[in-house]
Amino acid sequence: MPDPLPEGEGPEPEPKGPLRRCIVTRESLPKEAMIRFVIGPGREIVPDLAGRLPGRGMWLSARADVLERALSRGAFPRAARGQVHLPSDLRARIETGLRSRLRDQLGLARRAGQAVCGFQQAREWLQAGRAAVLVEASDGSPSERARLAGRRDVPLVVVLTAEELGAVFGRDHAVHVAVARGAIAVKLVQEAGRLAAVSGIASGAGT
Fold first, then answer.
1. Which superfamily, per CATH, for 92-206?
2. Backbone φ, ψ for residue 21 (5° rounding)
């Protein structure tokens, strides 16, 4: 649980509404394109990837360069109006957490019958118009990926490895996953976009 801040310290109260202001760029962006941080035990900066931890939040644009600027230019202690502890592996914690969230979303889709894996099954869903998102292994074959997607206007998520995708489906590895339309597909694209931007992956979520 985040520690209470000393009286008179802390970030500005979070505004109401769908937009949040980045403490580095000062841009106001949708929460889905940002990462929230809170002050945890020992005044450590904690990434709140779900945006639900108690306490006033500090928001950053979900971009690798913005995170580096925040760390190098003292944006966190300035926003917190006091000293804070910055974990040396903060970026790794964010990336690991976002990967976990993606796997969790895929697991939800699988259990709900909203996701299938394998080239043939994914192609059948695409041909039937059932697939809203293709999740492709980042270490898979680009040519095979292109052959499956073809000219279809379907978002591609390419941020998890074949081993990570396989673990979701109880396999050693999986390369092609199709996800049906719905809230889970929307969340997958959003989370993949955050992970790609923070980790600097060239291919994240897109068409």
1. Ribosomal protein L30/S12 (3.30.1330.30)
2. -100, 130
Q: Give every CB contact of residue 199 below 8 A, 6+ residues apart in sequence.
A: 64, 95, 159
Q: Does domain 19-87 have CATH number 3.40.50.2300?
A: no
For each of the chain's 207 residues, which pLDDT tens digit applies? 444 433 333 445 555 668 999 999 999 999 999 999 999 999 999 999 999 999 889 999 999 999 999 999 999 999 999 999 999 999 999 999 999 999 999 999 999 999 999 999 999 999 999 999 999 999 999 999 999 998 888 999 999 999 999 999 999 999 999 999 999 999 999 999 999 999 887 545 554
Q: DSSP letter for 27, please.
A: -
Q: Map 145-205 to HEC letters.
A: HHHHHCCCCCCEECCCCHHHHHHHCCCCCCCEEEEECCHHHHHHHHHHHHHHHHHCCCCCE
Joined tokens for residue 166: 């396989």
For tokens 């990570």, name the residue: 164
Write the single-letter amino acid at 131: A
Rounded (5°) CA angle 157-163-165: 40
- How many CB atoms within 10 Å of residue 75? 19
